[in-house]
Design brief:
Layout (H helix, E strand, L loop, with lengths): L9 E3 L17 E4 L2 E4 L6 E7 L2 E3 L5 E3 L15 E8 L5 E7 L13 E9 L4 E16 L6 E16 L16 E9 L2 E8 L12 E8 L4 E9 L4 E12 L15 E3 L28
Parallel strand pairs: 11-17
Antiparallel strand pairs: 1-10, 2-3, 4-7, 4-16, 5-6, 5-16, 7-8, 8-9, 9-10, 10-11, 12-13, 13-14, 14-15, 15-16
Length: 294
């Protein structure tokens, strides 16, 4: 879980992406952030927020956000809880940023005081960048209007680690007749066509039926995993995972795809060869590999 309130004089350490196995074709790769996967495809830009919360499953299959209990504090991350924001540009680069909230301010829902570098997956350069730390400073000064001493938070330089993108080869985001998975049909999510998949696991052969499953919502159109949530089929509630909301199909600010200038950049495996960029899929909706039964 990411820190939702930042305190002065500390260093925030982040570890966001878990990637393994050799890089195949960029069209087959995903940038895995928490439990959400985002395809590294070109000509399909978007921005979105990653959130956590609890949703009620209505009879028609739609989802309704469950309100907090009376007296339950919302906090600075709002509700549903803001975890990070993501962006993919037209070159297929993917950026993940984490919110920072000034702990000296009153607890209230609202926009973060700053967005900090988390991860950049770059299929063009063939690299993955992870923020290792962010320096956060707390200072005090007298307010010229009230005359009272107030504290100010400054987000200083950080450190970023750049490694070759040794991403796993992955299925595409379309439907699949796969063992231990159940296709639940198509739906519209944030105005985008998607389909829901229930992960059966070993329950496909269990004598006692299970009532809780993990379900994923995948979109071949946008090449993203919209959500990965635990579903209680008796209580009709989904929770315990990550969901993309506030999706905008637009080109993100280019600065979001760059390492901040005041960050120290390290290359644990050596600086990548600039002359050997990785290819990126150039066709929207491209399905380079047929999904096969497991």
């Amino acid at each position: 879980m990411f820190s939702s309130r930042i305190f002065g004089g500390v260093t925030l350490v982040l570890g966001l992406v878990f990637i393994s196995a050799p890089l195949a074709q960029a069209a087959d790769t995903r940038c895995d952030v928490l439990t959400i996967s985002i395809g590294a495809v070109a000509n399909n830009p978007f921005t979105a927020d990653e959130v956590q919360g609890k949703w009620e499953i209505l009879p028609d299959g739609s989802r309704k956000l469950v309100p907090l209990k009376e007296g339950e504090m919302v906090g600075p991350r709002g509700y549903p809880y803001l975890i990070s924001r993501v962006a993919r540009d037209s070159e297929g680069r993917i950026a993940v940023e984490t919110p920072a909230f000034d702990s000296t301010k009153a607890i209230e829902s609202g926009e973060p005081d700053a967005w900090l570098l988390g991860t950049i997956c770059d299929p063009v350069a063939g690299t993955v960048t992870n923020a290792l730390s962010h320096s956060i400073f707390l200072s005090s000064a007298k307010d010229p209007v009230t005359g009272k001493m107030v504290q100010t938070v400054t987000y200083g330089a950080g450190k970023a680690e750049v490694r070759p993108w040794k991403s796993r080869r992955s299925r595409d985001f379309g439907p699949c007749d796969c063992k231990f998975e159940e296709e639940l049909g198509f739906e519209q999510v944030e105005g985008v066509s998607a389909h829901r998949v229930r992960m059966l696991g070993s329950s496909a052969t269990d004598e006692v039926p299970r009532t809780e499953f993990w379900e994923q919502v995948l979109s071949e159109e946008l090449a993203v995993q919209f959500s990965n949530m635990r579903v209680d089929t008796v209580a009709h509630i989904e929770s315990g995972g990550i969901k993309l909301i506030h999706v905008k199909r637009e080109e993100p600010d280019p600065d979001r795809l760059k390492i901040p200038e005041n960050y120290t950049v390290v290359y644990p495996e050596g600086k990548p060869q600039e002359s050997a960029p990785q290819p990126v899929a150039k066709t929207l909706g491209q399905r380079p590999n047929p999904r096969v039964k497991l």
